[in-house]
Amino acid sequence: MVLPELLAPAGNLKKLKVALDYGADAVYCGGKEFGLRAGAENLSREEMHEAIDYTRQRGSSIYVTMNIIPHNMELKSMLEYLQFLEEIGVDAVIVSDPGVLYLIERENLQLPIHLSTQANTVNWASVKFWENRGIERVILARELSRGEIEYIDEMTEAELEMFVHGSMCISYSGRCLLSNYMTGRDANRGACAQPCRWKYNLVEENRPEESYPIEEDEGGTYIMNSKDLNLLNRIPELVNLGVDALKIEGRMKSVHYVAAVTSVYRTALDKFADSPEEFAIKEKWQKELNKISHRPYTSGFFEGSPGTEAQNYKNSSYIRDYRYLGLIRGYLPDTKTAIVKVKNKISVGDELEIFGPGCQVFKQNVEELYDNQGSRIEVAPHPESLVKLRVDHEVGENYIIRREKDE
């Protein structure tokens, strides 16, 4: 069985490495320029070299987003950046603007091109058009049903990629003007303020000082606030659809998110390939997806146009039942000690969960804690500090440490 490529987000170099360590076949990232996630750390040119080396060592692929809508003044520097990406050998660039495609053609750059979901591709004729312009892969709009995707695959030759997990946007494939209009931050240039997550009330034209809740809720109504996409339960259908890549959204999400979501989908895909007839979604996989920071889940457009169940009208907050505490940077087998880079406070007496590739999970009581100089401490409160923690089981680099939040 040929599985679709599992494509994971890499908002920075650390997340790129975690995504690959947890089973991604490929990663997508942005440079410091020309991507649609200005809020992500993104990769410098030096880091891009390191990222290429890391992906090559693992036989994986790396795609770089170039999907802003550029203005005239940016085209010269964009061309120079495209030439840099060609030189270092990225596996593809992700573009949405025809002008960027024209620059690549005009300069005869040897860069495979993937068409961004920002191009709003929802029919087979559009895919054929882009095929004829040399596009190797089309990232389909999220607003497609299973049947529509199947028909596009039947009618076209280009590789197809679809989103299977992560945030959803009220606007067609993210083509939103609200942020620009309300805050001056352009969503189509990577700086979305996410006004779709804000509270809204109804105002009558002749009574501008009076606002009315659209539903009976004192806090207002989140009329544009989508739930998060989650297609884990559709693994057999996704594999049989004929798409070439399954994409996880989230370049601005945490290391914990990248590790958990990538690990769950990797495990599920491999289990299906091993035994399709006996395959069943395990409850523990869904529990792992519930432990990351997320909004309530929906299957989006996969079964057809969603109804009100795909929206969350009560609030825009995330469900955060677990706190990400740190990342394991090394393991000393002689003393069963993990070297931990701290993100949030770890204290003696805490009951932790340690999570690793393949959805490995075990509980760990913190009985002893040491600073990097070997002195015993009761609490590690400082982010980015290194501490040593005795563990009951062998662990590896980039294992996740987390703790269930107190009620």
What this model shows, in words?
The protein is of the alpha/beta class and 407 residues long. The protein folds into two domains: 255 residues, Aldolase class I (TIM Barrel), CATH 3.20.20.70; 83 residues, Elongation Factor Tu (Ef-tu), domain 3, CATH 2.40.30. Helix content is 26%, strand content 23%. The chain has ten helices and 21 strands. The protein has an eight-stranded parallel beta barrel, surrounded by five helices. It has a seven-stranded antiparallel β-sheet with strand order 17-16-21-13-14-20-18, with helices on one face. It is globular.
Task: Write the topology of this structure.
Elements: E1 5-10, H1 13-21, E2 26-30, H2 45-57, E3 61-66, H3 75-88, E4 92-95, H4 98-106, E5 113-115, H5 124-132, E6 137-139, H6 146-155, E7 159-166, H7 178-183, E8 202-203, E9 211-212, E10 228-230, H8 235-240, E11 245-248, H9 255-274, H10 283-291, E12 297-298, E13 322-332, E14 337-342, E15 346-347, E16 351-356, E17 360-365, E18 369-371, E19 379-380, E20 386-390, E21 400-404
Parallel strand pairs: 1-2, 1-11, 2-3, 3-4, 4-5, 5-6, 6-7, 7-11, 10-12
Antiparallel strand pairs: 7-10, 8-9, 13-14, 13-21, 14-20, 15-19, 16-17, 16-21, 18-20
Helix pairs in contact: 1-2, 1-9, 5-6, 9-10
